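Dissemination and training. As part of the outreach component of the grant, students in the summer workshop were shown how a complex can be specified as a set of sequence lines and then modelled as a single object. The example used during the hands-on session is reproduced here so that future cohorts can follow it. Participants entered these lines:
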Amino acid sequence: MMIEGTQEYSLNMGPQHPSTHGVFRMVVHLDGEVVTKVEPKIGYLHRGLEKMAESRTYTQFIPYTDRLDYLAGPHNSLGYVQAVEKLMDTEVPERAEYLRIIFAELGRIASHLVMIASGSLDISGWTPWSYCFRDRERILDLFEMTAGNRMTPNYFRIGGVSQDVPEEFMPALKSFLEDMPEMIEEYYGIFFGNEIAQSRMKSVGILPKELAENLLITGANLRASGVQYDVRKAEPYGIYDRFDFEIPVLYGCDTYDRHFIRLLEIQESKKIIEQAYKDIPAGPVMTKVPKVLKPPVGKVYHRVENPKGEMGWYIVSNGSTKPARVRIRTGAFVNVQMLPEIVKGWKIQDLVTIFASMDLVLGEVDK
Amino acid sequence: MFGKGLLKGLSITIKRLYGPNLTEYYPEVKPILPSRTRSSMVLEPEKCISCGLCVNACPNQVIILTSEKDDKNKKVLQTYHMNMGRCLLCGLCTEACPTKALKLCQVYENAVYHREELLWDMMARSKQANISSGKVE
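and obtained this result:
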């Protein structure tokens, strides 16, 4: 309730603000320190990727898919190439399927590490940030030695992957997997078990289950609100049905659980990579596809579980070398709408924490 | 007990304090990047057959090349330019190159002062020793 003689204050937070994790602007309406309303303003990173896809050939668009969720490049490309393969009815060699899973899950771990790191940074925890980035660096090194680039690997191709992994990749991956339990213990000890972090995050920014379902929230944010839903299990794509892994679910619905579920998901991704590492067969990594791709007339919708949420690719082909229409459904874009609902009544310092817990990447929001 | 988690966190950082250094003293110490890293391009003009496949493979029309026919009706490369302001370094052009004349290399100090300098003359660049070797000195 406003005190007599005072008035509401509106504050522009962003687009150039360190805790908005990119170029995101919020118009925050404040009563003193208390947030009464937030209006998210998006579009500062809009590059027109859907339109770009229509003016490029199917292969030429692959480098751009890495730039959607730039913290987890491989999983975006996975969705795109699988959608085109579905349209063309192309078989992918076994080894390439396994390599795709390894890369996609490594990308998920890297993305979740950044999320945990920046979440701790937003409540002034500098040390956990450097620990997470230290370990993410090892994943990026794996990407670089195989595909040639760290954050935008451009590794997947329609019909396989661009090249086989180098000799030193598998030993490096193995040593990374062996070091992971210790890393996870460290993150827990330094961040999640810390009482200050817990008191800043627990019971803050509640997203009830019904609200999450009504707002079509997907990904880890939904699973932290007590809904056990993951596209990898609900509608397995690629070879995900061959792996034994759990879908972690938490019922706290608060900022702490939205951070903590990422740590649990890292452990599940580790399980998947270990199985893929063990089972990966030798053989070719690319199937024979024509140099000039001309998928038959038709349309396809393919969805994958991106680290930020459910990602859908709708591609319409008119039989030419370029797609007639590409529509990208990204998880982060839909997840933005939970922000105004869950920050009401919290203080402005909590707004930063709640925003960090949503794990938005503006490349994916603005496309 | 309140504060137990704080002590645990402190013990982790103290243990880490005596671990090895992870940071590099760039630019004094220059890292050696893996051989597949895509950070720059190099052309071997004598291998180029001016087929134009790289031009067609590029998503952004970065490559501009001109060629002339010699007396045997064979194409000879005249100029080869890359507009690096538009280049994604995705490597699709090198994948398309049938003679492997166009290659990726690991020169990563590519910053320039003026926009005009982003238009790389690849024939002239191929003569620079450090670029054709693909290593930063």
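Chain A has a mean pLDDT of 89. Students were then asked to discuss how this feature might be tested experimentally.
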